[in-house]
């Protein structure tokens, strides 16, 4: 038997721990100071993008073969988690870069990978993901955006809604119907560029949280793109989209972990300083029980998320399936529910102060809410889990 010191089954590697330390110090120095202003002004966190690009942390998942850092799925989770701990809006930079580009990594031709992953890895471009539409949210297969073949081109027409970082990203993975008779098997995936003629954007949505990450509609008006910009074979777009989400739901769990950790850290510090009835409120058992429950939920969510990330990585490296669809949905659903509970309790622990913008907790609570909604609502995650129960 291995000695207990070498028993590494349920802990991240030393490299992962070192990555966490370096991302945390960068986030606290270069991202945290702007988080409140980014939220207040509902502006893109340019400082965060600059800091992440300068440290090669904006798209760590891109394979080394295309100029990327080649980070594994757990390393990607740790980057997103540590950024979200100080600013959830900023964590959408590495998260959505993975979401937008993963279809190309999973199904794209070698030419597409070279053309689009290089600039992403360099920090010259960001990548968004266009699946949802005004009438196709949870029922993504009911989309109406069409792509019609015209010689060596495809012509796209339609509207995509709730597109994260729209208008800032240079590249967009767009799902469109190429054969209306076949429902999900008649959907194909394409790379559309911001500069393509006929691409435009709606006004930024006025949101409850993640205000620093622009969410806009993407309009496709007779957008003609070369046929070689199709990702994978015709009719495989929906399958690619769903496979992508199996991997990227784990990044939403990572955001939830980060924002929950930030809230718990802040509340823990506050209850040690705040005195009532002649002693710190952290000395009262009622407060201690709240903190214990918050920490317990967070740790359970983290273990589930990291286990899902490890499965994602093994599958990406060519391993067997390992129930990733279940584990990705479970991690996203559990972690986001936990984050909402933990941030709400953190606001409670600060009392009236928690309800004001002078403290970061009301922002964290607002930001946590979206993790229960996007990349598939938690109601949809429960349907996904029920259909994919581990054997």
Automatic annotation (TrEMBL):
Stretches assigned to the Acyl-CoA dehydrogenase/oxidase N-terminal domain: 13-124
PROSITE patterns for the chain: ACYL_COA_DH_1, ACYL_COA_DH_2
Domain of life: Bacteria
Domain Acyl-CoA oxidase/dehydrogenase middle: 129-223
A UniProt-annotated Pfam family: Acyl-CoA_dh_1
MF (Gene Ontology): acyl-CoA dehydrogenase activity; flavin adenine dinucleotide binding
InterPro entries associated with the record: Acyl-CoA_DH_CS (IPR006089), Acyl-CoA_Oxase/DH_mid-dom (IPR006091), Acyl-CoA_Oxase/DH_mid-dom_sf (IPR046373), AcylCo_DH-like_C (IPR036250), AcylCo_DH/oxidase_C (IPR009075), AcylCoA_DH/ox_N (IPR013786), AcylCoA_DH/ox_N_sf (IPR037069), AcylCoA_DH/oxidase_NM_dom_sf (IPR009100)
Transmembrane stretches, start-end: none
Domain Acyl-CoA dehydrogenase/oxidase C-terminal: 235-389
Cofactor: FAD
The keyword RNA-binding appears for this protein: no
Catalytic reaction(s) noted: a 2,3-saturated acyl-CoA + A = a 2,3-dehydroacyl-CoA + AH2
Entry keyword set: FAD, Flavoprotein, Oxidoreductase
Similarity comment: Belongs to the acyl-CoA dehydrogenase family.
Protein name: Probable acyl-CoA dehydrogenase fadE25
The organism of origin for this protein: Streptomyces piniterrae
């Amino acid at each position: 038997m291995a000695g207990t010191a070498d028993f590494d089954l349920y802990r991240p590697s030393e490299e992962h721990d070192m990555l966490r330390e370096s991302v945390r110090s960068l986030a606290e120095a270069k991202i945290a100071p702007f988080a409140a202003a980014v939220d207040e002004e509902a502006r893109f966190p340019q400082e965060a993008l600059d800091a992440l690009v300068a440290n090669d942390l904006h798209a760590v998942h891109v394979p080394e073969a295309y100029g990327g850092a080649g980070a594994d799925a757990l390393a990607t989770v740790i980057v997103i988690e540590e950024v979200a701990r100080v600013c959830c809006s900023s964590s959408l930079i590495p998260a959505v870069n993975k979401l937008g580009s993963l279809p190309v990594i999973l199904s794209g031709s070698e030419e597409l990978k070279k053309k689009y992953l290089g600039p992403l890895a360099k920090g010259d471009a960001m990548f968004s993901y266009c699946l949802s539409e005004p009438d196709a949210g949870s029922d993504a297969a009911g989309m109406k955006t069409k792509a019609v073949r015209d010689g060596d081109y495809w012509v796209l027409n339609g509207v995509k809604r709730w597109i994260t970082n729209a208008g800032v990203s240079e590249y967009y993975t767009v799902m469109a119907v190429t054969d209306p008779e076949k429902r999900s098997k008649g959907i194909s995936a394409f790379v559309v560029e911001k500069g393509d003629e006929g691409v435009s954007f709606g006004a930024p949505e006025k949101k409850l949280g993640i205000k620093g990450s622009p969410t806009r509609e993407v309009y496709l008006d007779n957008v003609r793109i070369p046929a070689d910009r199709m990702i994978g074979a015709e009719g495989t777009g929906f399958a690619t989209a769903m496979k992508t989400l199996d991997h990227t739901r784990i990044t939403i769990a990572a955001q939830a972990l980060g924002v929950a950790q930030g809230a718990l850290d802040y509340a823990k510090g506050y209850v040690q300083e705040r005195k009532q009835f002649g002693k710190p409120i952290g000395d009262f058992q009622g407060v201690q029980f709240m903190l214990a429950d918050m920490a317990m939920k967070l740790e359970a969510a983290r273990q589930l998320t990291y286990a899902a990330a490890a499965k994602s990585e093994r599958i990406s490296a060519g391993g067997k399936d390992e129930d990733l669809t279940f584990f990705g949905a479970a991690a996203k659903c559990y972690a986001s529910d936990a984050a909402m509970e933990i941030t709400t309790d953190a606001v409670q622990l600060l009392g009236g102060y928690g309800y004001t913008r002078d403290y970061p907790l009301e922002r964290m609570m607002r930001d946590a809410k979206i993790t229960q909604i996007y990349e598939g609502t938690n109601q949809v995650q429960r349907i996904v889990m029920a259909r994919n129960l581990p054997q």
